[in-house]
Every structure is written in C-alpha cells, then in structure tokens.
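Example record for the data management plan.
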Amino acid sequence: MAKLACRAVLLAGALTLVGCVTINIYFPAAAAEKAADRIIDEVWQLKNGAAPKAEEPGTAPGDKK
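Corresponding structural encoding:
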C-alpha cells in the first residue's frame, strides 16, 4: 500500500510541475502596430476599389518611407 501512495504522490507532484510551465512570447509593440496599420490600410483600399500597393523589392513588409 505504501508503494501505491508513494506513486500517487510522485504522480501528483509531476503533474503539478508540468502544469506550472508558462511560455511567454513577446512581440515588439512597434512592429505589431506597423503591421496592424498596414493591414488596415490594405482593407480600406480594397473597400474603396483600389488594388493594394505592391511592396518594393528590397524592403521589409510594412516599411514606410
């Protein structure tokens, strides 16, 4: 009976440790804001009937000049 109790305690401890794992993902606020602005601009252009602007070669998506 002691083996069963020991295994139960070990299992409960292992499950507690696994349940406490947290993964934090940080997004740069400026990059997220630029991407959101670009998406909003594209949606408004599509609503107005204009074709979305093509990105210039050599620039990162969302870069504004």
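Summary line stored alongside the record: DSSP finds two helices and no strands in the chain.
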